Every structure is written in C-alpha cells, then in structure tokens.
Amino acid sequence: MLQDTVLRLDEIESLDPIVVCNEEHRFLVTDHFDQISRTPQTIILEPTGRNTAPALTLAAIHSAEMDSESIILSLHADHIVKDIVAFRKAISLGVPLAEDGGIVTFGIEPSEPNIGLGYIRKDLDHKNYFSFLEFVEKPSLEQATSMMNSGEYLWNSGIFMLRSSLWIEQIGFHSPKILNACTDAMAKGAKDGTFFRPSKKQFESAPNDAIDYAVMEKVAGNVTDGPDCWVIPLDAGWSDVGAWSTFWIEGEHDASGNVTAGNVHTESVNDSLILSNHRAVAAVGIKNAIIVETKDAVLVTSMESEQAVKDLVSNLDEEFGMLKKHHQVVSRPWGTYEITDFGPGFQVKHLYVKAGESLSLQKHSYRAEHWVVVSGEATVTHEQEVFTLKENESTFIPLGSKHRLQNKASEPLEIIEIQSGSYLGEDDIVRFEDKYNRMKPQG
Predict the structure, then answer these.
(1) Class of 2-240 in CATH
(2) Which of 25, 94, 141, 256 has the greatest number of beta carbons closer than 10 A?
(3) d(CA 352, CA 331)
(4) Neighbours of 267 (CB within 10 A)
(5) Whole-model pTM?
(6) Residue from 368, 440, 357 nearest 405 by CA
C-alpha cells in the first residue's frame, strides 16, 4: 500500500516524497521504494510514535528548510484509491487553493453511518469545492446517522494540502508544545544518508495528538482571523484501511458473504472476514466475525467490536507485550530474517540476503552461531579466513569471533542460522565495518 501511495503521485508535479515512519520500519520502507524504482527525498525516523500532528510537523519543518514556499500534501499509506485519474484531478484542483494560503482537505460522500471516521461539515458551494465549518471526530452511531442523512457532511479522508509554512504557523499557534518539541528534535537530529533521525529526547516531549484535533477542529469555521479552509469532494473509490472491516467491504465475497484468504475452511459461516497466512483456519457456525491468523498471533473479534482492537493492543500485558515490539519477519538493508523457533538458550532464524548485499563485520559477546546454506552461495569471513559455502554446506561461528556473511552472487542467498548462548538479543553486536553506516548496536 505504501507503493500504491507513491505511484499515485506519478503524474502530479511534485518532488520526491518525504516519508515519516518509525525507526523500526526504515529498511522495510527503503525496500518498498526499491521495488518500484523510486527514491524518497528523505525518510524521517520517529524514535517513538506521537500520532499524526507531530509527524506532519517534522515533515513540514524539513520541507520548509528546502523551500519556505513549498506546498505539502499529507497522505496516509493505508488508503485504497481505485480511481487514480479522479484522485489526481482532485489533487490538482486543490493546488491553487493551497498556493493562495488556504488549508485544503478532501472529503468522501458517506455511504454508511461509520463511527470510525471523522466528518467534515461543508458550507458554501464553490462548484467543485466547499468551505468547511466543522470537524467532528468519530461520532456516536446516532450522530453519524444524523450527519449522513443531513447531506451536509463528508467523511474526512485524512488527506491535507497546504503550505509547509502555514502548517508550522498553525501548529505553533494551536499546539506550541508540538512545534517546540519537533523544532528542537530536528535541530538536534542527525542525517544518515537518506535517513534523518530527530533527537529522541526532544521528540518524546511532543504531545501525542492527531492533525484533526491539534489544528483542523480549531481552524474550521474561523473565517475572521484564520486561514481559508476548503474541502474538495473526492469520488475516487477511497477507503481507509484503518479497520479490518475495510478488507471485508472491499474483498470478493462468496455466496455466504464471506471474504477469505489462505487455508480457510468454513461451515455455516456468514458475513465474515477470515484470513490465514500460514496455518489452517476452520470456522463453524459464526457470523459477522473477523479472524486473522499470522505466524505469531491470531485475532478473533466481531465486526461490531473491531474499533476496540486498538485498546486491546495498548493493554497487552508483559506476556504478550513482545508482540508489539518484535515481528517474526524483520527487514534489514541486506534483506530479511524470520524467527522460526526459539527457546531457553537457542533461537533459529531464516535469513534472506539480497544479491550483492552483505551483513556487517561483527562479533557477539553472548552467543555462538551455526550457518547452513539452503540456497545460493555465501562468502564467509571468520577472523582472518575468507571462504565460500554452497548449498547444504555449513560453518560454526564461536562466541566472540569476528565474522561476516556476504552474498557476492547474482541470486538471493538463503541461510538457516542457529544461535545458542546465554543472551540472544539483537543488541548483542559489535560492528567493525558496515556498508550501511550502522556502527551502533541497532540490529
């Protein structure tokens, strides 16, 4: 979906995109850009999540430093847009409004009383766009039904366009703590190739707030001393994949109204979403359910309760808390690794090393490693020795030994790595050489 978001901009006059993401997703993001042969202008790495208002503020500060008159288009990477031509037409319509100093958002005609979305109350009709008077965030079902029936409201798509300088001005006026924290974080941050790391200490002092709450609700309808605020209707097959029900709505339904994917078997199941990524999932006698199976977790909820999933995740106790921090498949600049098994004193990883890439020259203080080549050809450095391993060949890296794994071939390299030791954390690493400038213990 990140790739789709970037590709939507192909015929819109714009600079290379600025991406704001979590530090842990940095290599996943670069992989996605590589796959579509695109280059981000900068990837700003949030040390911790602080919601959309601080994220946009980081991007606006960076954009304004390059061009004080720049116009920013804020896009989420979890939107579906089916009609790209209509999307581009709406964006083009908003450019002159933003150039004239306005705040432009894009609204969707409601098709149901959705309580998971925000609503925009529109005012004067300017043929292709409206001024807007009010933002209403995630109303009750009764409110949502009333607003939809009135014809005065549009869903808030979460897409915004305005000058970077105007956002900085408005966030500074309405939420100065966010601006101060982000300004200090950028000033004390560090550039690392395409990546920019804001200062963690400064950024963590930013309040956790969304664009809508921090600014948009406060400027809506303020025609006296605020900027002009415009909403452009967007009829482009838009959906926000902020909820699992969106996959059910957008998916291909069977005769019982179910959307399924993977190894799924159903009996007397109706109007449900069931997704299996690895294991077989069997369901009997249920309706309006959501079941999502991955290697490390299974989610089961009703359609009616899906909005409570965020609360569930935030309340996970220590036993399940690791699920929020670590995924089984982890992206690195050289490829990916997947944890396939673990227990006291051991861990098994499945490594995929891209053609021409290399892990760092490194050592570990608490673990030894066994490598087995599944496919491809590995170039191994072990202390002063350099040698080649082919399919079904293996080697042992003792605790404390300096070592490196390289793929000098034109095909991907697949390795099974068995780790053993008293501590198996990713921070047990000392790097001596690294082509990706990761000389600190970041994995």
Answers:
(1) alpha beta
(2) 94
(3) 10
(4) 9
(5) 0.80
(6) 357
Residue 73: enclosing H or E segment and its boundaries?
Answer: strand 71-74
Strands 385-389 and 378-382: antiparallel
Fill in the DSSP letter of residue 358.
B
Q: Which amino acid is at 34?
A: D
Of the CA atoms within 13 Å of residue 10, those in its CB half-sphere come to: 9
Quote the CA–CA distance of 63 and 324 in Å, as a whole number. Answer: 31
Say whether 328-433 and 2-240 share the same fold: no
Measured N-to-C along each axis, helices 176-187 and 164-174 cross at an angle, to the nearest 10 degrees, of 120
Sequence ranges of the domains in the chain: 2-240, 244-311, 328-433
Instruction: State how far the Cα of 18 lies from the Cα of 1, in Å rounded to an integer.
Output: 16
- Residues 393-420 have pLDDT tens digits of 999 999 999 999 999 999 999 999 999 9
Domain 328-433 has CATH 2.60.120.10: yes
Please name the residues in contact with 443: beta carbons below 8 A apart, sequence gap of 6 or more: 330, 332, 426, 427, 429
Cα distance between residue 104 and residue 94, in whole Å: 6
Q: How big is the chain, counted in residues? A: 443
SS3 state at 237: coil
Question: Three-state DSSP class for 190?
Answer: strand
Task: Give the residue ranges of DSSP H helices in 36-140.
Answer: 52-66, 84-99
DSSP labels for 117-137? Answer: S-EEEEEEE-SS-EEEEEEE-
List pLDDT tens digits, range 237-286: 998 887 788 889 888 999 999 999 999 999 999 999 999 988 999 999 99
Structure tokens at 197: 């790391």
pLDDT > 90 in the chain, percent? 69
Nearest Cα neighbor of 337 from 229, 417, 397, 249 is 417
CA 196 – CA 182 distance, rounded (Å): 13
CB 45 within 8 A of CB 195: yes
Tell how far CA 83 is from the center of its chain. Answer: 22
Cα 325 from chain centroid?
Answer: 14
